Amino acid sequence: MKNILVIGSTGQIGTELTLELRRLYTGNVVAGYIPGAEPKGELLESGPAAIVDITEERQIADAVRRYEIDTVYNLAALLSATAEIKPQLAWKIGMDGLFNVLEVARTLGCAVFTPSSIGVFGNNTPKDKTPQDTIRNPRTMYGVTKVGGELLSDYYYIRFGVDTRSVRFPGLISHIAPPGGGTTDYAVDIYYSAVRGEQFVCPIAAGTFMDMMYMPDAISAAIRLMEADPSRLQHRNAFNVTAMSCDPEIICASIRKHIPGFSMSYEVDPLRQAIADSWPNSLDDTCAREEWDWQPSFDLEAMTSEMLLKLSQRLSSEANNDRS
Ligand code: AKB
């Protein structure tokens, strides 16, 4: 039996991860949240919830003691574009918050998963098939906290034996909880526009390639890595993982196979574009495949079919509810 605490359970990854963990494990899967971002619906009804602000070490420790937690999924973060606007807060959550989690894990004996990102890479990193072990010199606060987080997590493993593991997520695409403040958010927003029958105004320029992944694959990556046999792990913080590499035109073309009239124009956001230009075009995820059998299930076409179907079902049932 596992008892798990998900910090940031109501965010883009947390919402789906918490529900999947509850489906898989019989122990307590505690939805940690901050006031103002309370769990609702199935997330609230299917298991325990607790206020856990990552900047308050005592709140983390209290939840870990109360529910006898053995594994923490630490999903608290500001995404890349927001982190550039609020760098001090990004540091407080990404670095000071992670330090709090690791200290609790060290003293109370928990394993810790903290997502890293393609944001750890910068302009000097090889752009295509970016290797697992290469230059990490981002010039964004998001990237700085993610590189710092990888190093700190490895330090806690090497120095104190805390079981820390992580993946470098690419842009994550989901029809459930929306992202907010990320550079790759356009790859979610484009599907909402398509389903609503609107033209999409893209903030990222044509020809800008970044890695992407459908959320069910991201959830499976996190859980599979935490379940992996530690004796096989040569790396820990953090593994490159990817499912596809695309630019806005490729996603648009994939949507047009289902909605031929869908149209897209461009109004490039300089902040997001500069961040996107500093990130890899595509990652090499061989190490994850070799060390814990990582393999995505969804390519672009499979993801587009499911995104359009699920989103249109959800948006039309919300519209019906609003009418009644
Ligand atoms: C972002 O765009 O900030 C995130 C990421 C790739 O880490 N989605």
Key descriptive features of the protein:
14 strands, alpha/beta, 324 residues, three-stranded parallel β-sheet, Rossmann fold, six-stranded parallel β-sheet, 2 domains, binds 2-amino-3-ketobutyric acid, 12 helices, globular
Question: Could you describe the 3D structure shown?
Answer:
This protein has 324 residues and is an alpha/beta fold. The protein has 2 domains: 4-170 and 215-240, 3-Layer(aba) Sandwich (Rossmann fold); 172-212 and 244-281 and 300-323. The chain is built from 12 helices and 14 strands. The strands form 4 sheets. A 6-stranded parallel β-sheet has the order 3-2-1-4-5-7, sandwiched between helices. Helix 5 (87-108) runs parallel beside helix 6 (141-160). The chain starts with a strand and ends with a helix. The mean pLDDT is 96. The structure holds 2-amino-3-ketobutyric acid (AKB). Residues 79-80, 117-119, 142, 169-172, 179, 182-184 line the site of 2-amino-3-ketobutyric acid (AKB).
Brief summary:
This protein is of the alpha/beta class and 324 residues long. It has 12 helices and 14 strands.
Topology:
Layout: E1 4-7, H1 12-24, E2 29-33, H2 41-45, E3 49-51, H3 57-66, E4 71-74, H4 80-85, H5 87-108, E5 111-113, E6 116-117, H6 141-160, E7 164-165, E8 167-169, E9 171-173, H7 186-196, E10 200-202, E11 210-214, H8 215-227, E12 239-240, E13 244-246, H9 248-256, E14 264-266, H10 270-278, H11 286-292, H12 300-323
Parallel strand pairs: 1-2, 1-4, 2-3, 4-5, 5-7, 6-8, 8-12, 9-11, 10-14
Antiparallel strand pairs: 11-13
The chain binds 2-amino-3-ketobutyric acid.
